[in-house]
From TrEMBL:
SUPFAM superfamilies: P-loop containing nucleoside triphosphate hydrolases (SSF52540). It catalyses: DNA(n) + a 2'-deoxyribonucleoside 5'-triphosphate = DNA(n+1) + diphosphate. The keyword Membrane does not apply. This is DNA polymerase III subunit delta'. Keywords: DNA replication, DNA-directed DNA polymerase, Nucleotidyltransferase, Transferase. It comes from Oceanobacillus kapialis. InterPro entries: DNA_pol_HolB, DNA_pol_III_delta_C, DNA_Rep/Repair_Clamp_Loader, P-loop_NTPase. NCBIfam families: holB, PRK08058.1. It is an enzyme of class 2 (transferase). Residues 248-328 form the DNA polymerase III delta subunit C-terminal domain.
Amino acid sequence: MKNWSDIADVQPLASRIITNSIKKDRVSHAYLLHGARGTGKEAIATMIAKSLFCENLDGVEPCNQCHACKRIISGNHPDVHWIEPEGQSIKIEQIRNLQKEFSYSGMESTRKVYIIKGAETLTVNAANRILKFLEEPSKQTTAIMLTENSQAILPTIRSRCQIIDLQPLNVIHFQQKLVENGLSENTARLMGALTNNLDDALARSNDEWFATARKIVVQLVEMFAENPQDVYLYIHNHWVVHFKERSEQEEGLDLLLLAFKDVLYYHIGNESEMVFFANQDPLLEKATLSFSQGELLEHLNTIMQAKRKLKQNVNPTLVMEQLTLQIQR
């Protein structure tokens, strides 16, 4: 999304609120953008920064061609700072470093923008330190906090931000866009279940790592159905080797969840809801013969529990071992 009209196509209310404040020169000193993954939080934050720094602004629309716009797009503008979790959280040391930047004048102007990704992961100490900036706002400084869970953020922080709630995107419309960009209908349905970000979806559809991940999940479901005694070894030889980073492990469980959902949908004759398997995939028949509807519901719950354990920083190999044993029973 390169301009506000693109944002307006997917988040019309958020676009209208923010562009009106830009037109009136009343940009908030702090925004809290709240929405699920893929709803455009980072794109909106980047757009705000471009609108504030663009050298050739046309109304509210940045030109995307000037030196400032290009550096913001590439993440290299000296007065636009991105903060994101280190590991599982944003730590107090990161906020201390950010506060040092507060005390300096801008490198190229008097304005500064700070964008905090995953704001819900601020530790208590880090959140209390960022509160100082929000309590003493500078007209030339704008903080933009991005979160998927605004309720996990301190009420004192929320009260000092203009909260922008982003709406879930229209899945059918998104899938149509993916098909228009060359994806098959089956792939478009899967991508629509994983993300609402067009660029992310297109990148995944051509990503070798993702293709291998999908293949591993298919083989794992097949093994659960036909050779459950071999699953434990398969987990160690293939799953653990491929899904190394925390984000990759979470995506692997997302794919496994969608695969088992499809088996359940096929079981109850609701094939139109399937997103992972093609309707005629022979594995679906094998899996429905191996698992009852009650067992499938239990397996879905087990996978959800495994996802929660990953979020709680439980050892990922242990998580998969436990999941395997529970599904094997």
